[in-house]
Give the backbone structure.
Amino acid sequence: MDSAQQEATEKAREQQTTWYGEPLGTLFRRLIADLGLNQARLAVVLGLSAPMLSQLMSGQRAKIGNPAVVQRVRALQELATDVRAGHMSAAEATAAMEEIRRNSGGNVLGDRTGTVRSGSLGIPANPTKRVVREIQALLRSVSDATEIQSASRLLADSHPELAEFLRIYGIARTREAVEHYESHQG
């Protein structure tokens, strides 16, 4: 790899860190390890081609262009957290990954009743988390993290609550957004 390619790859990884919290190669390798996947299966679950996943992991591409894929990544991150914590069995995780794969956008983990279909299991979906994910997906579909962060900074002095909303739902992790959402519900 020549120095121009190395520089472009490093810039892409920096952008990924800004947009997704870490380089996608690191994030995807962790998902692969935590969920017992291989790269090809991860690509299928996310709805990406294997070459696209490889380009994102290596830093040849910086941004996931499809908001539904970003939403699936977030859903898999939360699923991996549940698996690591022992809150979900391997069979339940496999069923949940299949549900994530089948859905594109909107209610990523739930059907219209708010229940994840996992074979004969009915795992209640967290309605607050679903709402938060939909807000995040909408914000992230109209602007990238850098633009949202810039808008948040511009609004911080004149409209601090709106700036906080943009920062939390546009940039922060789902867990932080859920906490914010729950703290503002009557």
